[in-house]
Amino acid sequence: MLSVTCALLLSVGACSGGEEKTSEPDPKEPNKTTAAKIAAVNPLTGGTLAKAPANPVFVVKIDNTPASAPQTSVDKADLVVEQTVEGGITRLAALFYTRLPGNVGHVRSMRATDIGIAKPVRGQVVASGGAGRTISRIKDAGIPIHSQDAGSPGLSRDSGSAPYNVVVDLARLTKDVKNTQPERPYFQWSPAGAAAPKGPQVTSASVKFSRTHTTSWRFNGKAWKRTNGTSAKEFGAKNLVVLWADEKDAGYTDPAGNRVPETTFEGSGKAVVFVGGTRVNATWKKPNNASTIVLRTRNGQAMTLPRGKTWIELLSKNESTALSAK
């Protein structure tokens, strides 16, 4: 088995993915369209749909610490984004569109980073609550919010200890919300039958977000799954996408006095994309919060993602983050 290990300090190392140099121009971002026109394709996975679901995309904020274990129904999401929050820990933003579980959790508070996560597919944020300035910014961005603190339907507490015991019934919640459908795909998806990307073959990866948190992964021949996650059933990702983005101070601290970071999910940066067991060194571009993510190989070749579930590891350019794979 070919082994490849790259440690990255503040940026992705220049490991060769074996891609051939090309002068092909940048792919254009898909134009905004109507729900009816994209109904045949799931914007979160690229998969075929008979028709658009009768519900919006819900972006559920899920705690990612042992205190709230086990996570429930994460495996039923279409796409997941792992983001940095205060104290070096991470939180999940699980995007649900084609399946609406009756028990998702444990739900935690929202962050301004969620604007860039939700906007591409007109997602609606589901959270336990949030800081006042964060709530204002998300509302100003035109993103609906459903929170336990505000008494939104479908959110409740189970028998666990607060604040790690909030759950949401998405099937119940959807009865009381406006059905805002996506207008563009999250990524540029490959057509059916497209050739698989070329690159080194790997079976494991470790993504270091901070000194206190690393997410470990293993490819089982069919999907990437966390090996140190807390889900009752782990999400299976065909595509594991690691992105480095700008980060700034959100302007407030948590109750313990920790600075709250805000990863800006727009702009551009370096990336590493695992498609099945293949590693591809890449770059990403997202002109604004609502844009489709456009990928290119590090040597300039346009790159589309194979259809399937995707997990995004959203890392900060400012932190001493690292990635290793073999």
TrEMBL record:
Keywords: Lipoprotein
Residues in DUF3048 domain copies: 45-180, 207-312
Coiled-coil regions listed: none
Keyword Cell cycle attached: no
InterPro entries, per database record: DUF3048_C, DUF3048_N, YerB-like_sf
Official protein name in the record: Putative lipoprotein YerB
Gene it is expressed from: yerB
